[in-house]
Design goal:
320 residues; alpha/beta; five-stranded mixed sheet; two-stranded parallel sheet; 7 strands; 56% helix; globular
């Protein structure tokens, strides 16, 4: 199913994006200068939208051919404000792309379905979410007060009594950072925005959407405990433990915890098991970077900002 209208926002590109887009049957909007963030660029286009639903798509994201048809279905329920599909990586050429592929396969085939079953998805991904236009407009558009407008809007709507929905059959393919530099830029933005939203919404989540608050609490526990879990094998070895036995127990525990969702994901998405297995080691590289930026954002957004020592950043730096 094709969209009724396509709007392209050329937000200060330095190439011939606008000219290429204009050669297709789409509406091209070009602000006078770069607006500074994805949320602002989307809000610039919002007043030109005339359909009941809007589906913002990142410039580097590709939707499956049936994405529009799939993502529209939940909106038969008037209480649904936002819906998003499953995200996978377009390529798995670098350690960063391979690590992110495992993250997506695990998250979208374990965490997201469980959260959806309890009517409390943690986030409707900004690269491929559909929104009810009247509800979005009433809210004031895409929120510009944090670095992650997708989390902000997903939580705000659930706190207000509306629903966010995960649509497993709708698949989007994202272009992930291919270098350490741009992965760090992306992680810094994502983690900062996540904890900005925790600081902003935590009290309301506890009062109005406790199940979503539980997922946030569990994510915090995982973040705080992750260094300890990584350190336990080293502690065991330092106390005279056997290296082969340590490696065996570590590999077995990881296989038990992560293996089943990955097998299910590989079967569901018709992926080569070998390609999934090849990506697995890269997951631990990305996990270490995740941990660093998690703790950096916790220190800034949950400690220094409330104490008035630092200001919360809204500097939207795009990865590549």
């Amino acid at each position: 199913e094709a969209p009724e209208e396509i709007i392209v926002v050329d937000d200060g590109s330095s190439d011939n994006t606008a000219a290429i887009a204009a050669s297709y049957p789409v509406t091209v909007l070009a602000p006078d200068s770069n607006l500074g963030s994805k949320a602002k660029a989307q809000n610039y286009a919002l007043g030109h939208c005339a359909t009941d639903l809007v589906l913002p798509v990142d410039a580097d994201t590709i939707l499956s051919s049936d994405y529009v048809a799939q993502i529209k279905r939940p909106f038969d329920d008037e209480s649904v404000a936002v819906a998003a599909g499953c995200v996978l990586t377009q390529r798995q050429d670098t350690v960063w792309e391979r690590g992110r592929q495992i993250e997506y396969l695990f998250g979208f085939h374990w965490f997201r379905p469980v959260q959806n079953a309890y009517n409390a998805p943690l986030v409707c991904s900004g690269c491929c979410s559909a929104f009810r236009l009247d509800r979005l407009s009433e809210f004031g558009g895409f929120p510009e007060r944090t670095l992650t407008e997708d989390i902000d809007y997903t939580w705000s709507q659930q706190i207000a009594g509306m629903k966010g929905v995960y649509v497993a059959g709708a698949v989007a393919y994202a272009a992930e950072p291919t270098s350490r530099k741009y992965m760090c830029v992306q992680l810094n933005r994502w983690k900062t925005g996540y904890f900005q939203n925790i600081r902003r919404h935590a009290p309301a989540l506890i009062r109005r959407k406790p199940m979503l608050g539980l997922w946030v609490l569990l994510s915090m526990m995982e973040i705080v405990l992750s260094p300890l879990m990584l350190a336990l094998p080293a502690i065991y070895l330092a106390r005279g433990g056997s290296l082969p036995l340590t490696l065996m127990w570590w590999a077995a525990s990881e296989l038990i915890l992560i293996g089943p969702p990955l097998v299910y994901a590989a079967v569901k998405r018709k992926l080569s098991p070998w390609k999934v297995l090849r990506c697995w080691p890269s997951f631990y590289v990305l996990k270490a970077f995740n941990a660093f930026y998690d703790f950096k954002a916790i220190g800034t957004e949950l400690i220094l900002v409330p104490l008035g020592i630092r200001e919360s950043s809204l500097n939207y730096e795009k990865g590549h």
